Amino acid sequence: MKGMTVIVKKVTQIMCGITFLYGIYIIVHGHLTPGGGFAGGTIIAGSFMLLILAFGSEFLKLKKEETGSSITESSGILVFIIIAALGMVIGGTGVFFVNFLPKGEIGKLISAGVIPLYNIAVGMEVAAALVTIFLALLIYRDEVLK
Amino acid sequence: MDSFIPLFVVVPLGGAFLTALVGSFVKGWGRYFTSILLAFLAGFSGWLMFSMPGPIVYSVGGWELFEKVPIGIHMVVDGLTVYLLIIINLIGFLSAFYSIAYIKKFTAENNYYTLFFLMVAGMNGVVISGDLFNIYVFLEIAAIASYALVAFGIEKEELEASFKYQVLGGASSLFILLSIGFLYWKTSTLNIADVSRIILRGGKDEIVIFAQVILLAGFGLKAAMIPFHAWLPDAHSSAPSPISSMLSGVLIKAIGAYVIIRLFFNMFEITYKVSLVITVIGTLSMVVGVLLAIGQWDIKRLLAYHSISQMGYVVLGVGIGMLVISQGGKTSVASLAIAGGLFHLFNHAVFKGLLFLNAGAVEYRTGTRNMKKLGGLAPHMPVTASTSLFASMSISGIPPFNGFFSKLIIIIAAVQARYLVLSILAVFVSIITLASFLKVQRFTFFNKSSDEWVEKGVREVPFPMCFSMIFLAVLCVVLSLLIVPSVRELILTPAVDVLIKAGSYSAAVLGY
Amino acid sequence: MIVYILTIFLFLVGLYGVLSKRNLIKIVIGLAIMEYSVNLFLILVGYVRGGTAPIIDADRQGELFVDPLPQAMVLTAIVIGLATTALLLAIAIRIYKKYGTFDIREIKNLKG
Fold first, then answer.
1. Phi–psi pair at A2, nearest 5 degrees
2. How confident is the model at residue A93 (pLDDT cuts 50, 70, 90)?
3. Which one of B105, B273, B389, B437 is separated from C11 by 20 to 30 angstroms, measured CA to CA?
């Protein structure tokens, strides 16, 4: 698909990096401020979509991107399930989904046990899933509808 | 053994995404991996049924009750749950084994197995969850996976059927979420046992009656009851055949009939008006389903209409049980009716799954589903013809197959509860079912053979498909053993007892 | 009380869209409006008069908070709605390729 005009390209070059960092901030501070995995993942996906829409891309490069994002999505969920199942082995009571890392004080960045790790896994997965859906619809339009 | 309950949800979920990850590198990974994992789950649920001492309550994350109020998510496995778990995992394993040979002709094979695992994970999650909102989340996982599976081979009819199914299914899921919102407003909790205690203390309340009606509309659409059946003939006939047998055999039971039974017996109070509505819906489904099925010439569409009718039998049995309990009648009559309904649930999963697998085998070799063009296949495809004969005799209610015994129990219970009109209707519907399946057998397998079958080289289907069909046909005969009292005490009576005794579910979960 | 009635009214507006529009995309939009209204209803159920956002900081513990459980429910429901809408649109675009139109009066191959 074709890209857009010069103004859109220049503004996107500045904004997409800031958007990506903002998304990472929302994911990592998910246990202190509103947001968390899903909201941050959507923002990161937004930054990727902005890049593709503004600069355009050819068909073969899009296919390679889609394989990459599909693999990231599956690994995100597998990391989540492995951390949840580790609770059965490591934690004191041996139950599924238990919070087994030390909990720290309220308000610090490294606290609340396993929850920041869950947030990162969910954020990775949601961003990859949204980019995969977007690329799939774009590839269908370029390849079939013409 | 208690701590392995979450495996029923974790193993299919992990398997789904492992298949998606590894399947893009290794070509044939999905086929054998799916059958192995589902065989493990079926064996585990069978072992659980024979060695379970009582209801198992598992609190996820270790959150125990705080001053007698449940604050965490609970997973509850009791007699009814393990009965459904065996049905889901066994039919899932047999359909996955059948798809080893059937799905080879599609190119996106690994996506099929990912979606299949997600559907099984969702159904397992619905039956073991002890929490209202968890039921909604797992129901949506199973439903969205099934929307994508119906549209799998991307032909014109499949896409249209999938779109219709999605719009209706999506609207009914929103009705269910709305009713969960109303129940949360009244009771401020989501745990099923806690909600039942609060409703019992509360007395008559219009908002709870409104929530019951909306819940019945939402789950009635998932269970394909009569005013809400419009999606079923298109969706079940356009899907690939192993998915048709999963949808018609397990999905409408696990996310439709099971949730209605669990919520209306263990959560709400049984009143006369609601039981009357459920019985009327069941009777209408039974009669209208079979009358619409007679004139069909497409095999799978005919089988889909018969699914509506047989699910009507299940809801009729359960409804008669509810009516007897709400009027204070004899408990023995009510437990007989509910036992008949639950037995028919298992039987329908087995023989309807077998019938859809047979239709798939016929389509795999001859390429058509229209009965006017088929005929005389019995000498060319002996295994398919004989298993189809077993299944047709089961569904029509001919002894010694399993369908006869379950329909007999429902009719005897209707007569003992003094509802003679319902028993006459049940016998009438069974006779029309017999006529319909005589037509199927004659036009597909036993008419004059035509020469085009010899030209096309129509032979028997490959080994994986034969294995699943023979296993299910043997199960059709073995299941009639559930009538024998010692076997019935082990399998069917725990499932019925959980529903009949009014406070036993909440006492088991909350512990007081 | 009037807020709850307005939310149910929005649900009925979405239902009207699903039932009576002829274009496939308008049916999808109607379903999305129904979903937004149910999410809104769930959050409104959890409101406590005079409460603030339910986040515990180091210096703010023990005030009056609104109910956090409906907020967790609505987060999950939004994700489910996203998956439903994405799948509906993917099927709609393929129907356009096969049938050539978005009008549901033309897409009637399965009957009877």
1. -80, 155
2. low
3. B273
DSSP state of A41: H
Q: Chain B: residue nearest A76 by CA?
A: B17
Q: Which domains does chain C have, with CATH numbers?
A: 2-48+66-99 (1.10.287.3510)
Q: What is the largest CA-CA distance in chain C?
A: 67
Q: What is the SS3 assignment for B260? A: helix
Tell me the residue type at B163. Answer: F
Contact across the interface for C42 and B184, Cβ inside 8 Å: yes
d(CA C103, CA B67): 58
Q: Mutation target for B interface from A73, A88, A97: give the one with most B CBs within 10 A.
A: A97
Residues of chain B where predicted confidence (pLDDT) is lower than 50: none
Residues ≥6 apart with Cβ < 8 Å to B43: none
Report the distance separating Cα B213 and Cα B218, nearest Å: 9
Cross-strand pairs, B56 = B77
Pairwise CA distance, residues B197 & B359, whole Å: 48
Which chain C residues are closer than 8 Å to A133 by Cβ? 86, 90
Q: Which chains are adjacent to chain C, needing at least 3 Cβ pairs under 8 Å?
A: A, B
pLDDT in the model for residue A94? 62
Q: What is the pLDDT of residue A9?
A: 92
**A37-80 tens-digit pLDDT:** 899 999 999 999 999 999 888 877 888 888 899 999 999 999 99
| Per-position DSSP letters for C79-111, written without gaps between them | HHHHHHHHHHHHHHHHHHHHHS--BTTT-----
3-state secondary structure of B449: coil
Residue keyed to tokens 């500045």: A14
State which amino acid sits at residue A21. L
DSSP B365-376: HHS--BTTT---
Q: In angstroms, rounded to a whole number, what is the distance separating the alpha carbons of residues B277 and B265? A: 15
CB contact (8 A) between residue A34 and residue C58: no
The domain spans of chain B are 2-510
Whether residue A84 lies inside any domain: the answer is: yes
What per-residue confidence (pLDDT) applies to B445?
A: 86
3-state secondary structure B58-69: EEECCCCCECCE
At C36-93, the pLDDT tens digits run 999 999 999 999 888 888 887 766 666 788 888 999 999 999 999 999 999 999 999 9
What are the backbone angles phi and psi of residue B398, rounded to the nearest 5°?
-110, 130
What integer pLDDT is reported at residue C112 of this predicted model?
65
Residue count (chain C): 112
Whole-angstrom distance, CA of residue B273 vs CA of residue B216 = 13
β-strands B56-60, B73-77: how paired? antiparallel
A1 in any annotated domain: no
Q: Which of B6, B20, B58 sits opposite A74 (nearest CB)?
A: B20
Residues of B in contact with C15 (CB under 8 A): 171
Q: Is residue A77 part of a domain?
A: yes
Q: Which two tokens stand for residue B72?
A: 């965490």
The ipTM value here is: 0.95
Mean pLDDT of A124-135: 94
Confirm whether pTM is higher than 0.90.
yes
Query: Which residues of chain A are within 8 Å of residue C93 when distances are taken between CB atoms?
Result: 137, 140-141, 145
**Structural domain harbouring A75:** 6-145
Q: Which of A138-142, C26-30, C66-70 is predicted with the least confidence, judged by mean pLDDT?
A: A138-142
B193: its two tokens: 């046992």
Chain B residues with CB-CB distance to A91 below 8 A: 62
Helix (H) or strand (E) holding C11: helix C2-20
Tally of domains in chain A: 1
Would you say residue A36 lies in a domain?
A: yes
Contact (CB, 8 A) for A38 and A126: yes
- pLDDT for C61 equals 66
CB spacing of C87 vs B144 below 8 angstroms: yes
Between chains, do A74 and B18 touch, taking CB under 8 Å as contact?
yes
Provide the 3-class DSSP secondary structure of residue B298: strand
